[in-house]
Write a structure and sequence with these properties.
Layout (H helix, E strand, L loop, with lengths): L1 E3 L3 H13 L5 E3 L2 E3 L5 H10 L5 E2 H16 L7 H15 L5 E3 L2 H18 L6 H8 E3 L19
Antiparallel strand pairs: 1-3, 1-4, 2-3, 5-6
Length: 157
């Protein structure tokens, strides 16, 4: 799972917050990578600690939600857009080798369901696990390493 901090100073703050919570953030170019951590929990730690950095996948989910609201539920013929947004979320999470988008019909059905929920509940929180269940399938070729084993280069959780 990847964290994007707006400044090097905030990146250091994010690292301190996460380390204090028992996580082991690793710097990787413009990201902090946190392995085997729930994106929602990491984001909550960063917010509570006063950091400006955020989990990249959470920001991408917010873009999906904003896109759905902008389209006002008019999703016919927009399978490609939904698929691209879902791919961006898993890519930003560093999990594109593990998860992929559902088929086009399932993506549109999930997008419509989420839009209806947004309108009915007034911007509810879309948890990471719920996002995965609604929009993604686990890739069959993905091999989950045992805790402590090396992962493929660039992959994080």
């Amino acid at each position: 799972m990847r964290v994007r901090a707006p400044t090097p100073q905030d990146g250091a703050r994010c690292s301190r917050i996460l380390a204090a919570a028992g996580l082991a953030p690793e710097p990787s170019l413009t990201w902090l990578v946190v392995r085997d951590a729930d994106p929602d929990e990491v984001n909550a730690l960063l917010v509570a600690g006063g950091a400006q950095g955020r989990v990249a996948a959470r920001a991408a989910i917010a873009k999906l939600v904003g896109w759905l609201i902008d389209r006002q539920g008019e999703l016919a013929g927009r399978e490609r857009n939904v698929k691209a947004l879902v791919e961006r979320v898993v890519s930003d999470a560093g999990l594109a080798s593990r998860y992929g988008p559902r088929d086009d019909a399932a993506l549109l059905a999930s997008a419509a369901e989420l839009y209806e929920r947004l309108m009915a509940e007034g911007a509810p929180f879309l948890a990471w696990e719920r996002f995965l269940a609604m929009f993604c399938v686990e890739r069959p070729e993905a091999v989950r390493p045992e805790p402590g084993e090396a992962r493929s280069k660039g992959e994080s959780t």
